[in-house]
Amino acid sequence: MRPTMPSGPARVLSSLAVVAALAALTACSSAPAEDEASAQEESAADTAAEGDGTDGARIATVVGGGIDVHAEPGGDEVLHTLASPNDFGVDRTFLVERNEGEWLEVLLPVRPNGSTGWIRSDEVELTSTSYRLDVDLGDFTFTVFDGDEEVRAGVIGTGEGETPTPPGRYYFTELLQPPDPEGPYGVYAFGLSGFSETLETFAGGPGQLAVHGTNDEDALGRQVSHGCVRVSNEDITWMAENLPIGTPVEISA
Amino acid sequence: MRLKSYLLIAGVAATALFGAAPASADDAAEPRPPVDCVGEAAPPQGGPGADGSPCEEDSGLTCEDPEAAESGLPCEDLGDIAPPREEDPEPAPPQDGEETAEEERGDQMTEAEREAIEEAQAPAPVEMDPTYTG
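Output (structure tokens, whole complex):
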């Protein structure tokens, strides 16, 4: 009667053939999974970078005469219809917080501070900037970063008492040059997308915040304003020559 | 005798399995396909390239060398081309209007779109009295 099980050496060879087959199958199946995982990580990193601005910010500028801001991407509910140019004659601009292809979630220059909405990407032109402005209300300082590099820093004046400067995330909406460079706004003024939380109106305007120069640089380093961030004329001139509309501004307490 | 059978089976299995994983294959050890011809599949010996006709589109092969195409010379040594790597195809560059995986997900821009975005420049100031809170 013939034995059913192979003898010693033959058994070893059979086992080796099976092991080789299993190893080949494992190697082939692992590569696509690794590629998919790395692609997902890259996607998450890109999305996060759009939101926090640390890897550069996207700026959306309206190309038409106005734009509808929707509550949801592709939704019918329109939260706001914003004209372009804005009240200062500057093309309407937004800071992009999230990019979903056909739709962009943007920071809005409306009350309450920090409002966001969705706009169609084909209604705007996208640009980018690696600059961002960090304002530290507690230390009375500002720092301008170009990517991770600190490129400018200085002293600020902040809102006083009942007209504090509200912390938050904002962006530059326009750059004005006051006719009187020796006035209270100094030589330049960058409007912000945020508003005073205690003043509904001011100087005929809606209580909009700004970063601007000053005619009283001795007052810097203290709480002196009605909510705006004051910097020296030298610093605001540097900003006006380097920072684009849409530059993210982070104001921290 | 039985040992010989097992040896033969193991060798055939190893050849079939490892021969189908060109990622681990050494290019130096295998003949490289001619640079003038690219294709998605290797035709069998005696296939479309062997009868002197130029590479046919229906064979999945193109002759990038116009002289070779006009001369009617076959795409040579096609039988030496390694089988396609199904598990790791070369990604095609994104085209306008082409729906990429990123566009399907809608959660990020393609690399081409990111590179096409211009850097914003410092603005021209508008001469106007501000109405900010000051």
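The interface with chain A takes residues 2-3, 6-7, 9-10, 13-14, 17-18, 20-21, 23-24, 87-88, 101-103, 105-109, 117-134 of chain B (CB under 8 Å).
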